[in-house]
Amino acid sequence: MIQLIHKKGKSVRRITYEGESLKIASEGLPEALWYLAEKFPDEVITWCEEEFEDNLNIDALPQIFHQDLILATYAIKTGYFSEKIGYIDQLPFVKVNREVQYPTWRMSTDVGGIKGKILLKFRPDFEQIGDLGFLLNSIAKLGQQNGLFCYSAPQLIKQELQDEIIGT
After folding, report:
1. Counting CB atoms within 10 angstroms of each CB, which of 3, 120, 121, 125 has the fewest?
2. Distance between CA atoms of residues 59 and 51, nearest Å
3. Which DSSP string corresponds to 101-143?
4. How confident is the model over 118-131, as pLDDT tens digits?
5. CA dihedral over 37, 8, 132, 163, signed as positive or negative
6. Which residue in 100, 101, 112, 162 sits closest to 137, CA to CA?
7. Taking Cα atoms as reference points, which of 72, 52, 75, 77 lies closest to residue 60?
8. Please, what is the Cα angle at 57 between 56 and 60, to 5 degrees?
9. CA of residue 100 relative to chain centroid, distance
10. What pTM was estimated for this model as a whole?
């Protein structure tokens, strides 16, 4: 597993692979993701806002990414789109329960992950995108229609932070 720690979705703070620090030339997040996906196609690449690094639930990653075709994120503080958009898509209206994993194309830069080789499938269409939030949402919107399982996964963060966010 690769961890990309970033600051406010704008710049790379550090990257680790199996506990060792990795150095890359780019500080831009999309460029870093493309590079890591190319270098480590068989690894799950995770990203995490620096503020939440201690709350990343590494133990849950094997259960969340139990197969290759999964893109999972969890919005702790930031979502690319306003909450006013809601869950509405070409599906019946649903009241979303943020305490459980649910399918959605709305992704977050706060915490998430995807397998490198799956990310690379979207590179020809989205390589020019320079904003991580827009990139993740674009991948999810197109990917979900083509067999990618996209989830909001609260298990990405430790239970204490989940309780704080959800208010239990």
Report:
1. 125
2. 19
3. -EE-S---SSEEEEEHHHHHTTHHHHTT---HHHHHHHHHHHH
4. 999 999 999 999 99
5. positive
6. 112
7. 72
8. 145
9. 16
10. 0.84
